[in-house]
Amino acid sequence: MSQAATISGHPAFIAYPKQATFGRTLPKNKIYENSGATARLRELFVRQVEQIVWQYKLAPETINLPAKPGVPEIQVFAIQLKTPELNLDVLRCIDGAVQFPIIFELGFDGRTQVVAAYKRPNESDASRWVLSDYFATDWLLSDAARTAMPVALDLGGLYEQVLKRLIPLPARQQENLADLVARVEQVTAKQREVEKTASKLAKEKQFNRKVEINASLRQLKTELKQLGC
After folding, report:
1. What is the pTM assigned to this prediction?
2. Is 176 domain-assigned?
3. Residue 113 burial class via C-beta count within 10 angstroms: exposed 0-12, middle 13-18, buried 19 and up
4. Do residue 24 and residue 65 come from a single domain?
5. Selection from 6, 22, 12, 23 nearest residue 148 by Cα
6. Using alpha carbons only, how large is the chain's radius of gyration in Å?
7. How many other CB atoms are found less than 10 A from the CB of residue 157?
8. Fewest CB within a 10 Å sphere: which of 1, 25, 51, 165?
9. Which residues pair with 141 in a beta bridge?
């Protein structure tokens, strides 16, 4: 995750309503019990995580927005870290243990980073959840100004707006959250192809092969640009 620091706020740095405050410490052993954490994962929790606080519960009864299929509630977890780096398997473990979408706010040395994955029920088994890759802000000063919570008609719309503030690509017109996340994943895969082909080009000695590889690289870069628009 990015270690870059900024001195101003960020659209994803949200002032959640006071009435949604939950403020309960979540014991690590509860996460272990509900996720079947391996010995390696437990060691990561011990080494990297100081404390997990269930900070806010965004639900129909707390913020007066109706639930939507797949988004019955949204939880905001504040995680105080012992180290500036957090293995994403820790977040995957927590997401696996809690059957709601979660927005994480990581804290370390006076700075905060907002992190979340797009989390949705599995289409073939609604009791299981599917996670995208994680999206994150830069590290922000913890006392930086927070923006008002986005206006939404329901919890699904709120979740979509919060996540879009974390995703590095702007949404296209009429592009829903699932399609945007899929496009981001395509961009990531295409970037890997570009890097691999560029590396191959740099190592190739034969002129004819260099011409072929360079043509492939140009095509890949064109495709990457189209995906990023």
Report:
1. 0.86
2. no
3. buried
4. yes
5. 12
6. 20
7. 17
8. 25
9. 111
